[in-house]
Amino acid sequence: MTTVPAPTAPAVAVPTQSTYQHRVAEYWNAEENPVNLELGKVDDLYHHHYGIGAADRSVLDEPDPGRRKERITAELHRLEHAQAELLAAHLGPLSPADRVFDAGCGRGGGSVTAHLRYGCHADGVTISAKQCDFANEQARARGIGDKVRYHHRNMLDTGFETGAYAASWNNESTMYVELDLLFAEHARLLRRGGRYVTITGCYNNTYGQASREVSLINAHYICDIHPRSEYFKAMARNRLVPVHVEDLTAATIPYWELRKEADHLVTGIEDAFLDAYRNGSFQYLLIVADRV
């Protein structure tokens, strides 16, 4: 019997469109951060985002130094995977015949999580060729390379088929792009009634302008964190209607408190996140919207 390969999108000649995007691609091509890589090694699910939920702080009391590192790493991974599962839970209902789009997929953990939950086909897009190659190798190693595929493309201009997707998402990647351009592409890709989900950090308009801590985060990740209000304005301009909004700020603080104690994983940005969350200038939001 002849196996017919799944359709792929036409080739996109150049995945980057600006000097800034080129810099972002260079950053992620060079990135070898233990807080991403070591956590992913726990179960070969590599997430490029933060965690939610109550942390088991007993891992800090482990007397054996090597075992302490292992337990802290596993606990942080548990929290980040809980975040991925929360996002995936809001994509449905989906069937194995449906296709989903992961915008800014990183090393691919989110697409795998969605596929394992629903059995759906997933297309992930990253501006980093290195991340794309890594994620495709992980999918092949899991035996799901025919269902989960990663593409070295720009999430603002994917070349994928209009209306082909039942659901799409960004997980902590919206701060790298203009929201109107991003949501226009999601609206184009989603079928009518399709679901869009994002979990993102945004600065709190009621605080005023971006705080010092938010500016430090921007500099650290070469990003531009958007104000909370702009998400809803840009969605309205692009046929995305929010149906659920959840403030996850309190839920993510335990992750950051534990990560600050992980000497083998700290990056130096932990205090900025904790201070920004605690002083109210920064929020961690889940936004779920329908494409109308």
Key features of this structure:
41% helix; disordered N terminus; 292 residues; 7 strands; alpha/beta
Give a brief description.
With 292 residues, the protein is an alpha/beta fold. 41% of the residues lie in helices and 19% in strands. The protein has a seven-stranded mixed beta sheet with strand order 3-2-1-4-5-7-6, sandwiched between helices.
Structure, explained:
The protein has helices spanning 19-30, 34-40, 65-89, 109-118, 129-142, 179-189, 212-221, 228-237, 249-260, 270-279, and strands spanning 99-103, 121-126, 148-152, 165-171, 190-203, 240-247, 282-291. With 292 residues, it is of the alpha/beta class. It has a 7-stranded mixed sheet, with helices on both faces. α4 (109-118) links the parallel β1 and β2 (121-126). α2 packs across α3 (65-89) and α3 packs across α4. The longest helix is centred in the first third of the chain and has 25 residues, at 65-89. The model is unreliable at 1-14 (pLDDT under 50).
